[in-house]
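hi support,

uploading two proteins for the ticket. first:
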Amino acid sequence: MAERKYQYDVLYLGSGHGAFNGAMPLAQAGFKLGMIEVDKIGGTCPNRGCNAKISLDMPVKVKDAVDQMQGAGLTGTTKLDWKANYEHEKKVIGALPKAIGAGLESLGIELIHGKGTLVDEHTIAVNGQNYTADKLVIATGAHYHQLDIPGQEYLHNGTDFLDLADQPNRMTIIGGGYIALEFATIAATAGTEVTLMLHHEHALKQFYQPFVEELLADLEAKGVHIMKNVTPSAVTKQADGYQVETNQGNVASDWILDATGRLPNVEGIGLDEVGVEYDAHKGIAVNDHLQTSVPSIYATGDVLDKEVGRLTPTAIYEGMYLTKLFTGATTEPINYPAVPSAVFTSPRIAQVGVTPDQAQAHPDQYDIKEADLSQDWFRLAMRANQGKTLSVFDKQGYLVGMAEVSSEADNAIGSVLPFIEYHIDPEKMNNFITLFPTIESETKHHL
């Protein structure tokens, strides 16, 4: 048997979804793998991202449902217990790093703990020791951006919010993206006085703005004070908390969340030294096979410079694609399917495929069908009498996109993914019999 040229067939720098989901079947295929992680096994999503966020959101959704049913079968409102919610979140995500790590090691994947730095096109150094592989996969993820203003040491990021055991009376949230609005929803539902500062006129720019305005109106109804076109200039410590100084006056707060975005983890990992091309704001440049400018080095997940969303499912898809590529199951370029996205607020906003804005800009290619969900029988039974759906069809009548704002938008969008991805004939769509009565049946009814 020929002597192995490198220690591993594939060595991953990072252990998030862009790494471990693809590594498991790759190990089962007989590849010798190593995985380097400086923090908790599993990366952002299981430990300080979507898993923790949705855990905190669960009682928010339940409270909304209970509030909606007052006088229609339920009496007595509920109160969100911040401390208990925090403790539950820590309990349900606490076991994930060990479980993921055990699963990886059970398949023979060697876990290497420490900060990894590229040495050459086949080598990564960790704690002064070199590890080599035929192929390297960079899956280092992203980190929170921080405002560069005086008093920035008083700002907190999304990880800090997920670790916030004690409820603040007053919270200021700077930003207008997913994290800002989702955490504003959680805090406001718990009774915190929330000020949301938008840098521009609009929030959630990638979503249909009339739906976003409905969401912002709902937040205001919950007591959130929304400021637009705000530029924070400094944060100062006060006797009773903190003060955020802006171009629109000063805002007093007990806790300040900087939710101004995330940046790819490209610094300090040896990209320049090895010659991997990247942009500090956009991420690592790859070709249509996820290959970097150095042929033996690939990249997946949030560290990528890519057009599709920086989402857990796209990271998983990229990791699984590399498994197929490395095993020879495919030689084709990566071809992303229809990628849904959702904001887990109250109400939720979700979309997939061709957006309403894109359809409106090309009326010669698309038709839009609007549905008012407030009179749906199933939603009337739920007392969830708020929401709209915009379905986008091509001129041949195929469903190519959908956007929705409602308490069940994420489930509604999820139910139509096969129609869009597999370009199912409009007649054949009728052959799908849904469970009734459900959100899925109501969604299909509107197509």
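and the second one:
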Amino acid sequence: MSAFPVLQHHLLFLRPRLHLSFIPFSPRLRRRLFFSAASVQCSSSLPSSSSSTASRDDIDEVAEPPGVPPPPGSGRETQQLIDVNPPRGTRDFPPEDMRLRNWLFQQFREVSRILSFEEVDFPVLESEALFIRKAGEEITQQLYNFEDKGGRRVVLRPEITPSLARLVIKQGKSVSLPLKWFTIGQCWRYERMTRGRRREHYQWNMDIIGVSRVRAEAELVNAIVLLFERLGITSSDVGIRVSSRKVLQAVLQMYAIPERLFAEVCVIVDKLGKITKEEVEKELMSAGVTSEAVKGIVEVLSLTSLDKLEAVLGSDVEAIADLKKFFSLAEHYGYSQWITFDASVVRGLAYYTGIVFEAFDREGKLRAICGGGRYDQLLSTFGSDDIPACGFGFGDAVIVELLKEKGLLPDLGRQVDDIVFPLDEELEGQASMVASALRRKGHSVDLVEDKRLKWVFKHAERVNASRLILVGNSEWQRGMVRVKVLSTREEYETKIDELN
């Protein structure tokens, strides 16, 4: 058979570039129409293309009949649009959201600066061993953990305190105590999502390492209150519940419960309010706590008066002395109206050992805003000598929900100092010189070209620009530019080297 018939068949599929590029059909519909036309004109199957002189680049993609996908690797697979949403439980930060995030982080940093804390940071990817503990903590079931290509077990950190402990151990005697460190980092937990709870969030942590006295906890709560006040939140909006892990420890000692059960009991008790009291009691008994001790634990945890707790435990219990000292310091700091005693606060992480606290919205619409406490024995779980320490974690999600609820979100529109605009195309280079000079002086400058002047004025309004600087032929020849102050509508000319 001659090559002519083969070429004739293939000519049906040659792309007439100039003509088809203007067909107002979607690519999918165009392929269907093209396939139909080919079917009408070709009643027999195409022979092998090995003898054809047409290249693949010259052949349009042909749609397959319904239900028959193109063979894999054929080069004719239809490119599907990817899912444009981020993974479930995560967020994008377009400019308006990024402005809010940066503003909030700046509040975190400013409060930390006021209290003379230093900023540190850690990798988001950590060793899995840092976060695998055996107290039944919920967090250990929520890890984004996997084996890397080197066979190492790693995890996207679910919290920050173990990373801080690791760095303290690494620094060793090269740093002098006490340490006052803060960080703002991203955390990951695969958990059920609710309002203010996602699978990733950013968290502000403040920690004091090397101070055993209760003043350290009082300093941390002072930082939290200062932040609330800076954000416009009052003590009528938010309260801070305070207790001590030593309260629960004293109750267990009263009923001769082994010390080894302490961390596990704390984790179970932290579920009060999340599951029913009966379920908590059942879990406690399953852990080996006697029914009499379970009853005593539940009764003590219902107390909201420090005087009543002292009547139950006695005045010589360490927990009572710590809490009295803390509430006395709160009076001196001036935030006593923010705090209340609540024996049910134990926090869900096994490493807490002393005073614990958490902030809550008084209307009860949201989960805990932040929480923390003392963890004097965390470093020994990593094989190091213990150092007294306490700290807190403050997430970004719940506080933003609260600010929305209270109408306290700031207006954070885009802000630009100057817009530079050449009135003639041949002045683009000169406009670039003006913009570059202003940027060297620290101005935020948007250089706009190829637009009508009417659009430029609207754009200046959108970005809250302070000035519009017009580069025109007549002005430039005199070494000048025209300046419009957009807030006052004042307009004047100035020398280029005097433009500030």
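thanks. also noticed: The longest strand covers residues 179-188.
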